[in-house]
Structure formats: C-alpha cells, structure tokens
Amino acid sequence: MKKAVTFCRKVVLIGAASALLALRASAQMHVIELVADSDSRYKIAGQHHPEITVKAGEPVLLRVTARRAKSWNRDGSIHGFTLLRAKDRSKVDGWNLLFKPGTQEFQLTAPAEPGEYEVVCTVICSEDHEGMHMKLTVLP
Ligand SMILES: [Cu+2]
User: Fold this and answer.
1) Taking the CB of the first residue and of the last residue of the chain, which one, N or C, has fewer CB atoms within 10 A?
2) CA 126–ligand 1 middle distance (angstroms)
3) Are 32 and 64 in contact (CB under 8 A)?
4) pLDDT tens by residue, 25-82
C-alpha cells in the first residue's frame, strides 16, 4: 500500500514537472492568434489590416480559429495557409497548412531568411478566395 502511494506521488511530481516545462516552452514561443474567417479573410484581433511579423528562426505557435465560408475541400479543409517568398512566390517548407472548422494549433519555425513573405489561402473557399492573403515579415 505504501509503495503504491509513493509511486502515485512520483507520477504527480513528474506530471507537474512536465507541465512546467511545457509552460516554459510556450513562454519562449511567439504565439500568433489568427482567424481564417467565413468572409474569406484572415483576421488578427486589434489589427485593421492584418500582418504577421516574426524573427528569423524563432519558434512560432500559430493558433487558428477557422470559420467555414461558402465552399471547402473534400477532405474537410475550409481554408489554407501557405507561405510564399514575396520575391519569387516560391513556397516555404513547413508552412503549408490546412484548417478544419474550429480552433487548431501549429508549431512552426519562422523562416531563416529575413524579408517579405506572403500568406495565401490554398482552399477555394468562396468566389472571393483570391482576396484571402496577408503579408508576413521576417526580421533579422
Ligand atoms: Cu480561404
């Protein structure tokens, strides 16, 4: 009986320690809250014209709330998020995302190369889908 209690305590301690570590990791992470909205627009609270700015190579936690527009993909994705280099429209590895309805999180790493980037939606989400894009700047 005593052994079982000790074991339980250990489990609780390990649980607490890993929760703390997770907290620390999130404290260092750049958290970005984004809405991919039903009017085929990206939105960021407090920004009239949404833009994302990150530091080169920093860890980013992208928390997205997606709301369905007029149409969506067969796999249930309702909006996309693909990062392109502004200079040549080439895709950035690891930044090709698809959103399902509701809130979802992505752990990403900011591009290593400072400069101007463009986020575009890759799901034909409405007749206004072409207007679903935003600027992303990577600072040195
Ligand atoms: Cu879209």
Assistant:
1) N
2) 7
3) no
4) 556 799 999 999 999 999 999 999 999 999 999 999 999 999 999 999 999 999 999 9
- Residue 13 Cα to ligand 1 midpoint, Å, equals 44
Query: What is the pTM (predicted TM-score) of this model?
Result: 0.81
pLDDT digits (tens, 9 = 90+) for 80-118: 999 999 999 999 999 999 999 999 999 999 999 999 999
**Nearest CA to 55 among 108, 114, 105?**
114
Residue 86 domain-assigned? Answer: yes
* Distance (Å) from CA 24 to ligand 1 centroid: 33
- Residue 77 belongs to a domain: yes
Cβ atoms of residues 125 and 70 within 8 Å: yes
What is the Å distance from ligand 1's center to 77 Cα? 9
Question: For position 84, which CATH number holds?
Answer: 2.60.40.420
Cα(64) to centroid(ligand 1), Å: 13
Alpha carbon of 109 to ligand 1 centroid (Å): 22
Distance from residue 122's CA to the centre of ligand 1 (Å): 7
Phi and psi torsions of 5, nearest 5° = -65, -45
| Calpha distance 49→136 (Å, rounded) | 12
